[in-house]
Amino acid sequence: AVSLLQDMMPFSADRGRGIGACGVQADIVALTATIGVCERAKQGACALQLLKQARLHALRPSTVTYNATISACEKAEQWSSAVLLFGNLHEHGLQPDVITYNATISACRHGQQWALATILLTDMRLRRLQPDVITYNATISACARSLQWDRALACFEEMQDHELQPGVIT
Description:
elongated; 170 residues; mainly alpha
């Protein structure tokens, strides 16, 4: 999938009008789908490289593209890359959504970044986005991995205060 997408991206001016080596133009859907393959393969570095190449070739990644890339970094346990991508959304004119926050908070869990996870949860509410069970599970897990049991319990109670039902993972 990655090789095919790279063949679809123009790497020189002589190919003209954005047509890649295989005669097909890459679009944001193909890019996002390929980054999704990187996510499933836990290949965060590959996802980051594809995102970088897309920007170089004038493709405008969407929030969904960033979500897939952040998730790929999370699966590859590259929490700092995921957080950096989250921070770069605004400079590209994009707004994070619930999925963006969930993926970034999940990445914080891998880096034992419980404080950052709780800050993201607070920021999410300030932006009037509604945390869901996944958001709370990821935040609770980040706190628990860092042995911040009081914070984990506070998140659990907040989850119940918002009338969200804990699941098996919680």
